[in-house]
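User: structure tokens for this one?
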Amino acid sequence: MLEIALAHPSDYPMSPSLPPADSGHAKDANRAYYDRRTQGQEDYWRLMAAPRFRVRMALRAVAQARPATICDFGCGNGALLGAVHARFPHIQLMGLDLSSELIAENSKRLPYASFAAADLCGETFAFPWEPVDMALSMEVIEHLDQPGLYLNSIYRALAPGGTLFLSTQSGPIRATEQHVGHVRHWSREDIHEALAQAGFSDISPRSTGWPFHDLSKYLANRNPDKTIRSFGESGYGFKQKAVCLALRCLFLCNSRRCGLQLFAVARKPLPGEDGQA
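Assistant:
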């Protein structure tokens, strides 16, 4: 949705979240929302400032890690893998997602990548390929009832020394975020602890986005129903495209040190290394 509080990030609680969801609730809610794909969703991911910024940050992380293989854990419509392929066509790409329909569509539309449907929070999850050099997790963990199982799945799928690049949200969970299935937002301390518990080392969380990413969230939720209709249902017209363009310009002024957009980079230790961060 439109991510257009005025408050500085330090004014927010450290780790606000909704009450824990019942087992399986988040999975069912996410499947229901993302299986009902709309042109508005596609235009949001393609044109809105926040997802475009996250793609830029992911591409920067890929350039720094220089992997030969990448898997996107929760790949959705494959847009991120498409962006990676456009910039780094030599990298072998894989994508996993809960939706078998999305996976089937991605396999036809993105023939240069390999896809498989999987429950990434399943206790019996088995990675279908050889271990990869890099894992991408973009705006997934805030949707999950059992984030620890998800991080464990990523950890097992990474080759020793492999890199994880993760993005998620901090701050309060507002109506538009509940609508798309968010069940928990994360502080830097929380995501660091979760990654360390999964076995990762060299963990580096970073908050960004103040003030315009955070302001967009606040404004979007002054009338969340209207925001969801305008920016999540029908294809974007002139008004929506103008808002997207304005936000993309404003996002260039965002802080890279504070805000409600959270990134984290972590590494799977090599054999014999201490796995503690």
